[in-house]
Structure formats: structure tokens, C-alpha cells
Amino acid sequence: MTEGLLQVVVGSVAAVFTLSTGSLVWFQTRKHFRLIRASEYIQRFNSKEFFDARILVDTFHQDETLLAAVLEGETSSNLETVRVRATILRFANLFQELGGSYLKRTVDRHYIWTMFGYLAQVYWKRFEPVIQALRNSRNRPQLYCDFEAFASEMRRLDTKYSPKVTHSVSTRTPAPVFVFAYGSLVSPASIAKSLGKDSKGEVRAAWLYDYRRSWTALIPVQPIGSKEPNPTIAAFLNVTLCEGAIVNGVLFPASETDLSILDQREFIYRRVDVSQLVRPKQTGTVYVYVTDEQKADAGSAYVPTEYLRIIEEAFEYWGQGFKEEFWRRTASHSFRPLEGQYRFLRGGGGDKLDSQT
Question: Mean pLDDT across the stretch 326-343?
Fold first, then answer.
């Protein structure tokens, strides 16, 4: 009797252990699969095909223009109109597919919210008149319903995941502060040189939405050992507001002392809070340095090769994919190169050879 009972107990323990192990493996496998699916959507969204589609979509600033292009393309014999319509709907179809995957829980939900939450809301707002017209013309009220539900869910999660405000003074830990860098400070070495400390392990890739990157920060400089006119105007990278645009760059934590150093370093830039526009979303404040957009003729300004060298060396750390996206998301220029080193002629830049942006 005792031996039989022991066998039952051992068998029960073995069954429980097997079931628990199997459940854990299943849970981990499912989580891994969902993360992979989410990463695949991010790769598709950043592919050349959808980057080109995004440029086309972002060209249509008025809903009426977008609506006309889609509806006319349905019956038009003009090949260009048909191509535009197909590209626009391919873009909308991606968000419909993404919404379906999200609602069916085949992707990691928090990861998807982090990367696509803001975009889903922006593009649903832009596409809603178009989709409503398509629903009416085809008598299909369910058309793109997953896209609509996805955007609505992202609005809800913004509230859920947003940092909670606390009024406790004595026990509250100061919220962390970060800086989004999109020029020479994508280089961990440049960050270390500017702040006097190695933050390499804390720097990570990030994206800034609704801004575009261009060569529109113009600063007088004094070339050192150069045959170019002396002094001259140098063009550096800058970001300016542009709905629907994206800039890739890096995030790094910054103390009050760090911000004071950067404020002096970026003497023609001002610090702007972009906490709601940076992904991955951070708990705390995210700043970016911007300046008013300035323009110059091709022959009246130069791009320092030393500045470009710092950026190019950073790509060795971040990889080829980061590099390709960096230049794809940067407006082109026709300025001549400024060889050698240089000094800034005004502000707090001193003899530093690289400016953030």
C-alpha cells in the first residue's frame, strides 16, 4: 500500500513538473514568436518599398488631394494615377495588416505600441476621409476596420503607459532626462569628448517623429590651415518640424551638468522638449537641439569634412543599416567641402571641432 502510494505521488510530481516545463517553454516560444513578428513589421516599414510609399503619402498634405488620387485611380486609365493609388493603398494595407496582427495577439503588443503607436494615429487621421469614401463607394463598412481599431487602441495605450504624475516631494526620484542626437553626437566618442565621461553603454538608437533633418544650421567658422575663404560659413545638420517625417539618431542620458555643457556647446541651437515624439518612448524628458532653418546658395557655404568624418566613424559602431537610414532620412545639399579643422567665430563653441545637431 505504501509503495503504491509512493508511486502515485512520484508520478503526480513528474506530471506536474512536465506540465509546468511544457507551459514555460510554450510561453517563452510564443513570446519570442511575437517579438520576431513585431520586428518583421518594423523592417518592412523601414524597407525601401515602404519608405518610397511613405514619401508619396506624406506628399499629400490635404485629405482632398489624397482622396481624389485614390478614387480617381480606381477607374482611371492614366498609369501614373493608377500607380499613385496602388502605392497609397499598399501603405494603408500595411497598417490594416498590422492592426489585424495586433488585435489577434500574434505580435508583441507593447513593442508594437512603442514603435507604431504614434504613427497609427497620425496615419489613420490622414487616411480616414479616404477610407470612409471607399467604404461608401464599395458598400463595405468593414473596410480597414482593423486599421481603425488599431489607431483607437493606440490612443488608449498612450494614456495607460504615459508616466503617472505624482505630487510626492520628499520621496520622489527625479525623472530621468535624455538627449536625442542626430548629427555628430550619434558618435559615442563625440559624446564622451563633450561631456568628459564615457556613456557608451547607455547610448541607444532611437527615432524622432514629425521632424526632418537637413543642412540648415549655418555657423561662421575660422578654417585652420585651409585654402578656402577665411572666415566662411559652414553648414551643419539641423532638424525642423515636418509632419509625418522621421529622423533616426541616438538617445543618451544627461544630468543637469551635462545639459549645461551641451547648452554651451550648441550655442546657436535651443533645447526643445520632444518627449512625446521619440520612440522608443521614455519615462522622463527627452530634449533635442534645434535652430531656425537657414538657407544659403551652394557657393556661399561649406560642409566641414571633419564634421562628416565624426559622423561616418560613428556608423562603424551603429552598423550599415543605421548608416543607410541616416542618409536616406537626411536632405541632400550642394555645398562644397571645407577641408581641415575649424574654429567657431561666435558663441560658446570655443575651439571645439564638432557641433552636435
Answer: 91
